[in-house]
Design brief:
By secondary structure, the protein is mainly β. Helix content is 6%, strand content 53%. The mean pLDDT is 86.
Length: 172
């Protein structure tokens, strides 16, 4: 990947819409991102030090959540850190969507961590509709407790560069 494709403009990103049923707690107090794996050490460091969007979802009942991230001329660079905690005996569906409105060069570097407690079922769908000039880097890590399930559907239609790394820790 050309170094020019990973340079971002460090600015805020405020074109994020969160919709959901039975979201018990939303916060920006995410845990430190000590991952076993990720897209790269430097990209994970960037998330830890420069994230312009941090989101923690605490789900203690059955939940459906949609997170819509829309890139435009005022929202060029998104460095997001998303943590999802599903409590015991819950079933949750989360849709995370990245889309562009204009034909500009955009940058996304993200981390999604799911903590599925005993008997939790979490379905995560990630949809990348970034344009062909953009870069998309995504690190995914899961902590899965007894009898829990975490399922992903990744629909990756966009980006000049799009790299996803996935890792699960099973505590069974």
């Amino acid at each position: 990947i050309d170094e020019a494709d990973v340079i971002y403009k460090n600015q805020g990103f405020d074109n994020i819409e969160i919709n959901g049923i039975d979201i018990d707690y939303v916060s920006d107090d995410v845990s430190k991102c000590d991952l076993v794996y990720g897209v790269s050490e430097s990209l994970l460091e960037e998330i830890e030090n420069n994230a312009n969007h941090r989101l923690k979802l605490m789900l203690s009942s059955n939940s459906n959540v949609e997170i819509l991230n829309t890139f435009d001329e005022d929202n060029i660079s998104l460095i997001d850190n998303i943590e999802i905690v599903a409590n015991e005996n819950t079933t949750s569906s989360i849709l995370i969507k990245y889309q562009t409105e204009e034909d500009l060069k955009y940058y996304h570097n993200g981390l999604i961590r799911v903590h599925a407690n005993n008997n939790a079922k979490v379905n995560v769908t990630i949809v990348n509709f970034l344009n062909g000039k953009s870069s998309n880097f995504l690190s995914i890590e899961n902590d899965i407790q007894d009898n829990a399930n975490v399922n992903y559907i990744i629909v990756d239609f966009g980006g000049k560069n799009s790299i996803t790394n996935y890792y699960s820790n099973n505590f069974r």
